[in-house]
């Protein structure tokens, strides 16, 4: 049992992060996100900035506390006209000014995750725009914050994160997921292949099962799904002959409706863990290594090394890679995960002939 427990830790290395991943190159444009204006308006510049920290920076990993606000410039008329204000401005509303503001803040890391916390002396700076608006037919002014396009090295904002991971961008695509865990010279692999085409989807899974003799046997499971008057699923063990599956048969794999396929391999980690990079974004090493180190420390693990990188192409995930290694009771264990997203908007799914 002890040997089996050691091997199981390799799978735990990535399981503790509760995420899914992708890979298909990064040529072309990386981001399509150009900025976002706040949904709400505020009575002052300071309250708009405080709302920015609460809504865009604070999250599960950190809580941001305002220290200082410095105006460092103002957008030109051309720059103001280029802002994506969405539905925030009604007809006749006037932009009085658009200030470029440097927001200084400290952050407190979550005690729940036992992260190595910054102290109150660690001050971070983020540049944001504060837009002063005069609503049509009034003499009053209101303020909204505007999240500008992210710069490399910036902490990630909620608006950018939700734009890239918008489920609507993943309703038609092909996803291939692979996870490998190695310990004591034994490698365990899990593979998913998903084709999602709006109202139809397929799921092929290769799932390992380790028996008492420390050998691994694999089971292949095939699923076909349709969304019409109700969500229906069919199951096959050979990829050819399908039988209608009872309701909830795939719930343990995260599939409960057609929308599940758009989010199944999208990471479920809070935006406040990440920072912007030239290729997309990555989890901040201090958060990743400390979090996993704390989890594995419970099992006597040490020497933890980890990375988690998300590559973005044309505003969607194009490659996400996870690598984790640690030493467990003198034995090195490693875990890697990838998911490949491709064929956006061109994926097709055919109903298996055996279904009729």
What does this entry look like structurally?
There is one protein chain. The chain is of the alpha+beta class. It has helices at 2-15, 45-57, 77-81, 158-164, 260-263, 285-297, and strands spanning 35-37, 62-74, 94-109, 124-134, 142-148, 172-183, 186-197, 200-210, 216-227, 231-236, 243-244, 274-276, 280-283, 301-313, 316-328, 331-342. It has an 11-stranded antiparallel β-sheet, with helices on one face. The longest helix is centred in the N-terminal third of the chain and has 14 residues, at 2-15.
Which structural class best describes the helix and strand composition?
A: alpha+beta
Coarse shape: flat
Number of strands: 16
Question: How do the strands line up in the largest sheet?
Answer: 11-10-9-8-7-6-16-15-14-13-12
Give Rg in angstroms: 24 Å
Mean pLDDT: 84
Strand fraction equals 35-45%
- Count of alpha and pi helical runs: 6
Q: How many strands, what sense, and barrel or not for the largest sheet? A: 11 strands, antiparallel
Q: Report how far the terminal alpha carbons are from each other.
A: 47 Å
Low-confidence stretches: 1-27, 112-120
């Amino acid at each position: 049992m002890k040997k089996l427990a050691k091997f199981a830790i390799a799978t735990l290395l990535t399981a503790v992060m509760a995420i899914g991943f992708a890979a298909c190159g990064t040529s072309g444009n990386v981001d399509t996100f150009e900025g976002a204006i706040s949904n709400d308006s505020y009575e002052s510049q300071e309250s708009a900035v405080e709302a920015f920290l609460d809504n865009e920076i604070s999250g599960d990993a950190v809580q941001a506390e305002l220290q200082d606000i410095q105006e460092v410039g103002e957008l030109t008329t051309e720059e103001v006209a280029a802002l994506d204000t969405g539905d925030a401005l009604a007809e006749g509303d006037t932009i009085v000014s658009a200030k470029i503001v440097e927001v200084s803040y400290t952050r407190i890391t979550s005690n729940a995750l036992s992260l190595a916390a910054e102290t109150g002396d660690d001050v971070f700076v983020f540049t944001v725009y504060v837009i002063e608006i005069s609503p049509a037919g009034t003499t009053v002014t209101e303020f909204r914050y505007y999240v500008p396009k992210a710069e490399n090295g910036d902490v990630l904002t909620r608006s950018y994160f939700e734009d890239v991971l918008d489920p609507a961008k993943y309703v038609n695509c092909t996803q291939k997921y692979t996870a490998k865990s190695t310990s004591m010279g034994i490698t365990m692999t899990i593979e998913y292949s998903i084709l999602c085409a709006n109202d139809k989807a397929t799921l092929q899974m290769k799932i390992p099962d380790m028996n008492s003799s420390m050998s691994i046997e694999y089971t292949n499971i095939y699923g076909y799904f349709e969304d019409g008057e109700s969500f229906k699923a069919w199951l096959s063990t050979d990829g050819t002959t399908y039988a209608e599956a009872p309701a909830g048969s795939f719930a343990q794999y995260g599939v409960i409706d057609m929308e599940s396929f758009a989010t199944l391999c999208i990471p479920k980690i809070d935006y406040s863990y990440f920072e912007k990079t030239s290729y997309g974004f990555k989890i901040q090493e201090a958060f990743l290594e400390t979090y996993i180190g704390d989890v594995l420390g419970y099992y006597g693990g040490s020497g933890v090394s980890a990375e988690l990188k998300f590559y973005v192409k044309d505003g969607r995930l194009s490659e996400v890679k996870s690598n984790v290694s640690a030493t467990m009771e003198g034995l090195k264990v490693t875990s890697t995960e990838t998911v490949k997203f491709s064929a956006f908007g061109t994926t097709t799914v055919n109903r298996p002939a055996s279904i009729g």
